[in-house]
Structures are given as structure tokens and as C-alpha cells.
């Protein structure tokens, strides 16, 4: 088996993941909790609605702890990438581990992306597109992401010239 790629993401990505996950969990919680809470308040004789609202609240707290406290350090430790002259190697995943080896001859486009949360932490993502889809390396420093994007684009150009 091939060794794990050498490079890790910027450690600040853990905070970005925590914020993103917390936002999605809170929005989902409100969508699931509020209807049952309203039913329980408007129609007190419907006791089942209060029970369902309580179960949703307990699941919310458990999911929040899992996704905000437990998973980000594990996810960070499992995320690796490496750029070689011939391919881009990406390894990620906690339960379902995935390994992508992307030959530069197949690369069509390289791109950087930066949403508001990544921008607040001074991070950016690099996306490498092939005919089979896009592969993203999240949580790189802005300068590092620009260098990686430009290097990947140059290696892809050189691979196409060699054919």
C-alpha cells in the first residue's frame, strides 16, 4: 500500500469545520424542533408533540457535541494531500476513507475558492477539476493555496505537452 501523502491542512480549518457544522446543525434543529414546540404550546393536550420536541433537543445536543468537539480533530488528522510532478494525491475520511490519485494529464482546471468563513480565518480551498469531477483541498493558507493552484496548473500543462 502506498504511504499517506505528506502535507496536512492548516490547523485553522478545524475552527472553520466547527462553525460550518454548528450552523447546519442549528438550522436543522430549528426546522425540526419549532413545529413540535409550537404544537406543544398551542395544544397542550397533544402531549406527544412535547415528547418529540424533547427528543429532537436531546439529539441536537448530542449531534452538536459530536460534530463540533469530537470529529474535527479526527477529520483534520485524516486529511492529507501531496503534489508530485506526475499526480495529486489526496487522502481523507474518518469512517469511509477515500484516496484519490489524480494524474495531471487528466486535469482540466485548477481553481481557488474562499467563502466568508474561510476568508475570516485567512484560508482558501484549491479545486482541481477533471472530466470525472472536482477534487477540493480545503483549508490552506491563502498564499499556499495560490502556489498550489499555480503549480498544479503548470504540471497539468506540462503533462499535456508531453503527450
UniProtKB/TrEMBL annotation:
TM region positions: 21-42, 48-71
Position of the signal peptide: none
YdbS-like PH domain location: 76-150
Name of a matching Pfam family: bPH_2
UniProt KW Zinc keyword: no
Keywords for the protein's UniProt record, in alphabetical order: Membrane, Transmembrane, Transmembrane helix
UniProt KW Lyase keyword: no
Matches recorded under PANTHER family: UPF0699 TRANSMEMBRANE PROTEIN YDBS (PTHR34473), UPF0699 TRANSMEMBRANE PROTEIN YDBT (PTHR34473:SF2)
Protein name, as recorded: YdbS-like PH domain-containing protein
Organism: Adlercreutzia equolifaciens subsp. celatus DSM 18785
Lineage: Bacteria, Bacillati, Actinomycetota, Coriobacteriia, Eggerthellales
Amino acid at each position: 500500500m502506498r504511504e499517506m501523502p505528506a502535507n496536512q491542512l492548516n490547523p485553522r480549518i478545524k475552527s472553520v469545520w466547527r462553525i460550518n457544522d454548528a450552523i447546519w446543525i442549528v438550522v436543522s434543529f430549528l426546522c425540526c424542533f419549532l413545529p413540535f414546540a409550537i404544537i406543544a404550546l398551542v395544544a397542550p393536550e397533544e402531549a406527544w408533540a412535547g415528547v418529540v420536541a424533547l427528543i429532537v433537543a436531546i439529539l441536537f445536543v448530542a449531534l452538536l457535541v459530536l460534530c463540533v468537539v469530537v470529529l474535527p480533530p479526527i477529520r483534520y488528522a485524516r486529511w492529507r494531500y501531496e503534489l508530485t510532478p506526475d499526480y495529486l494525491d489526496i487522502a481523507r475520511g474518518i469512517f469511509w476513507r477515500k484516496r484519490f490519485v489524480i494524474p495531471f494529464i487528466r486535469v482540466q482546471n485548477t481553481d481557488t475558492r474562499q467563502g466568508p468563513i474561510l476568508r475570516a480565518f485567512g484560508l482558501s480551498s484549491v479545486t482541481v477539476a477533471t472530466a470525472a469531477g472536482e477534487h477540493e483541498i480545503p483549508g490552506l493558507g491563502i498564499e499556499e493555496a495560490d502556489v498550489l493552484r499555480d503549480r498544479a496548473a503548470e504540471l497539468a500543462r506540462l503533462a499535456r505537452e508531453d503527450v
